[in-house]
Amino acid sequence: MLKATTHSMSISLLTIVMRRAASLVPDLYAVDADYALAELCKDEQKLEKVLLAREFHVSLGRTVAIQVHQIDSIVAMLRQKFQSQQSRYWMDFTKWEHFVNDDSTRSFLSLEVTRTGLSEITKQVHMVDEVYRLHGLPEFYKNPRPHISLVWALGDISSKLKQATKEIENFQNSVNSYKNCNLRCKFSRVVCKVGNKVYDICQAVD
Question: Which UniProt keywords apply (predicted)?
């Protein structure tokens, strides 16, 4: 897994939205923590600590199986390519969306980048594709849709999450203080995770 990590998310808005999501779709779990969202929503401090006050990541490549002898080569090439990608940039997450993984075993409620930051992330995705291609690995999706996933559920529940995203967006639009509120993060670094080991690819600087 190769990802760009981010920070500085609007906690108050996400707290409200996550509570609404928990009421609309049962059996949602926090990404990377696997706590039940409904339980987290009972304790605001725990919800913020476990789900919201943490680094988020945007996938830059597919999660693929690689051979042990390929690891050093892949990491070295990625580090070389990302030498010029060390400037921080902002990402605005303006669209609630749902995604399902390739084998339909998990569904995700996510925030998608549609404007600010999209060109920078897309460029990074293409750089990863070049390295993958040289190692015979499958490239990213043809039309990348960079996003952060906040919660997940077992199986393909697209219909439920599609309805939930519509209701969340309608709710935001009905509350004047959140109508034009973009959730904004700043790119901080790129890492490559192989098994349980994490390789630093590049660290952003101001």
Answer: Coiled coil, Hydrolase, Lyase, Nuclease, Nucleus, Signal
